[in-house]
Amino acid sequence: MAFGLTQCGGEGRMEKKGKQASGLGLRSTGREEREKEWAEGLGKTQDVTLMKPLNTTSFIARQGYMAILDFVVAQIWLSSLKHLYNVVICLKYIFSLYGTSLSFFFFTKGRSKTGNIVEWTSKDLLRGLEEFVPIYETRPIKNNMYGMGFDHSFGLWFMVRWLKPDLMIESGAFKGHSTWVLRQAMPNTRIVSLSPRHPEKYLKKGPAYVDGNCTYLAGKDFIDFGSVDWGKLLRKHGIPDPSRVLVFFDDHQSELKRLKQASKFGFRHLIFEDNYDTGSGDHYSLRQICDQAHIRGGGHSCFWDSDEARLRSKRKSFWEKAVETDELCGKDDAWWGVRGYMRDNFNHSNKAISYKEHFQNSRLVESVLDLYWELPPVAGPSLTHQTRYDPARASDPIIEDGRFGMFQRIGLARLDASVFNGYTQMAYVQISGSMLSREDA
């Protein structure tokens, strides 16, 4: 089982070999269904401006006929770049993505016990994308709104295929899209799926996926991840070593809680689908926990007239999920978690915590964290036309803005732009030791 290694980030900055390799929170009946499901079980296209064409007559009149040759050469050169129309955009848009003002948003790696890095590189991710696009196009659930989009579907498929676990566990199946992705990555490996509502129930309303080689703890048989007798279940599946199991969480539960539970049962390799940024989301995430004032790039200002506040307000006009200061900060300027709260269970449960408690949570996580790696977006926003997540709060994309030829060659241009709107910093972590024993101590 070829598990890789990397470091945790203060806010999820990726450590790498070679070049850096690096949903939808709308109010709706679909999202309410997912929230209700767990409650029962647990008791804008970007406005761009093209560069204006040069007025040839005025140009010659001002510069003279000796400038004609330069003008013609320039026109030929510009014509050769027609396919890069996504890049020829107004400076306002470019600066909103990559301006020097982003110094407030840079991520820097924090501390981990070992300082390990993942085995895969940016080239591996790029090759994986080429292979995955045609697979994704065969998905049974074409419209997976309120479930995983393309970025996280690719990330899950890529990591599972690379890690090759002996058993796959998913907590939160929804309509079964993630189960389908797991199956594409590992055609013959057993899956255990936990979900308050069985995916087959969604077949009455439209497409869903039910796997024939999967043990479902769903519907009337549902058991929450933290209440399963995993020792017994793993023995039933012939798995003597829980460290050879991969657990995928897409259940909108506190990731600190899930990390403690996974550690208790001996699981070491975890993927968190919704790894929400500070000030957003419906549960306490690892990214929020890693966001600490003592880490360079971490911590935030709650002053309304600060540079950070002005930048946040400006970026909100470009990115729907960008977090403004009034969303970030709560009572007594509490910026950690979400306005000083540790959310859980689709935000049906939340608890106010002090910064001291938030800091202690980070030290607890750091004490067992051998690896932390955030999936980068598959491509830059000028290529995908996504308008939701703030690119300044993410790793550099696998395919950077301006590389439209590659974006098109791989087949990403064939996909509907809506599938790129669900990015929420999916994270892979590897842990060791027992969090409970450390906490009790």
Automatic annotation (TrEMBL):
Biased composition (Basic and acidic residues): 29-38
GO cellular component terms attached to this protein's record: endomembrane system
Top-level taxonomic group: Eukaryota
Ranges for region Disordered: 1-38
PANTHER family according to UniProt: DNA-DIRECTED RNA POLYMERASE SUBUNIT BETA
The protein, known as: Uncharacterized protein
Organism: Oryza brachyantha (malo sina)
